[in-house]
Amino acid sequence: MERKDVLLYKQYVNLKFAKLHVLSSIFVLFFCYCAAHAQKTENKLTTADQRQIIEILLADKFDGTSETTIYISTANLNKEIQKDFPTLENVKVQFVSEKTAVISEICAYEFGEFQVIDKFVSVSFGNCRDGLAYDFVKSGDRWKSVASTVTRQILY
Description:
It contains 4 helices and 7 strands; from the N terminus they run ααβαβαβββββ. The chain is an alpha+beta fold. Strand 6 (130-139) and strand 7 (142-153) form a beta hairpin.
């Protein structure tokens, strides 16, 4: 084999090696992009999911209550949820702004921010006297409460 043929062969081998690395790098980048995109969409909680979780919290807190009117702070509740807020039997829900609740000294119930952690959703719910942090997990197309923790309790 001549020197020229050896150089051409080495260039050919180097080119094949480079192509292999470029293709594998493209594959790895594509996989990482897809995984990041999937994680972003999985960690997003829809308005319907939030509404369903709120419905569970309200039923848990006010089932069989003697209260006829409850005040709910609009903090952390978007307009879409407020428009189609879950109803309670024999209980009127009155929305108040965070500012109005403070000024008028209404002990309004308030939802914390919905936090998505892996497959769980955590949200706090309570009023000026007591509150709980609830954890939920989705089973099929329904959310269910899996745990609750006392976040504040004021005894008079």
